[in-house]
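Render this sequence as a predicted structure.
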Amino acid sequence: MAAKQYARVSADAPVGVLSELDTAAPAPQADVWLGAADVHRLDVRQIALGQVWRRVLFHGNGKDDQLNLGQFTLCGASPAAAAPGMPGPRCAYGLGCTKPQDKLIPARGIRAAELVLANCFSGALAGHAMYDPKYLILLDALDGPAQTVVATLTACDGQRPENLAWLTATTDAGSAAVAMNRQLRDINPYPAFVQAGLQSSGLGPSHPHSPDDTHTADAFESSGSPRSLNSPSPDSSYGSDGFPDPGGPYPPLHRLGARLSGLLDSGLLGPDYPLRPRLRALADSVLRDAVRTVARSAPDAGPALAAIAAETKSLDLALAHRFAKHHDDPVLAFPTYFGERSTATAPVALDTPCACGWPLRSYRRHGRVPAIADTVQTVCARCGDVANAHTGAVELRVKAPAEAAAGSTLHVVVEAVAPRDGTLNLGIVLPLYLDARVGPVLRRVDAAAGRRAHAEFTLDLTPRVTPQAYYFCPFAVQDLGVSVSRVHFTVLPRP
């Protein structure tokens, strides 16, 4: 890096964006723009390696060892020797790459003054990384010509707004990472992007400050005392209005109605979703029985509320069975779908650690329109967004080993805290690429409000499971409120 400070990129070198996720029209500020469709039809490797860039941004899904661009992969594997005993991706065990060898783009081979790795965990700190440093894409990029590498510390929801913010960033912004974090704070209220290396010689000239330039990273700091953001808020008590109390025997109608609207009216579920007719019928019942002549006519309201509670309990079980059988059930996409249509509050520190032992921060996401249900996201600096839930849904805590050998069994303990008395439906969703089985498929637990309920599961890893990092997702369903956690672990070769 000391030697690179003397380098100056040619003024006419292009600025490029290569994105697997951006489907909009090319931005005029980019000399080279490959959007989602272009990435799947052009030779991305030749375009990436075949020229010198002033600035270039790669945008796609991935983790600390790779960034995916269709069939191509920006790869972090370097010629450095691996440390003995450290975990790595499948190539570390002689099993090759998930992508064809001729589709790999070495990060150190990108000739650019400024290189942006816009994917999750591309710049994970040493204590947060999943793999041996030999495979960390940030380190491999710094081994190449780039003076500046912008990467992400943890999970990142960066999309087109952040791509445009990077394209128009100037030296007044302090760094491209600051400009991108400023743009991203409405959905990720924590610093996601970080700049490593020097100030890029490819960054454009200064421009007068805009009013927004007064914001700094302080806007992303935690505030408030440790607490749970998933507990009932002051505006969620309905007893004084004749509605069920949050901790009572019946689901609170306001919260239940909001969740039904999020499922039925937000666009999250397609018209052919199998449970849509039952969900619509329940929504009609809630609207009918929320009228004050029912809600405030105790004890006449009892039968109506009991019928709503019974159908809600039945739908909870139906949803849980779908999650256990269909990892891609669209309801499970609510964190991303609702999150992209929400704004986030400032994060607060929680008093419980992540399964990996690191501290957690949590924040609420409020829907920009009424049909978007409010959600809570919990973030770990090492594991990213480790929990997503509807506001007021069940709180999950998960205990599991961080490593397991192929052919062994991983024991998982799920602790659930319900907002009211009732039946919890608990299970685990596995990604398709993890060769394992969950036992049992589903557990139903009678829980008391505010008290921990325990459930145990096993993940039986087959002997042929590929050694690498994986995750599994425990879930809970109660009153149509869904809570989903993500727990990371590493599979090691079979002894």
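Summary. The radius of gyration is 24 Å. Residues 301-325 form the longest helix (25 residues).
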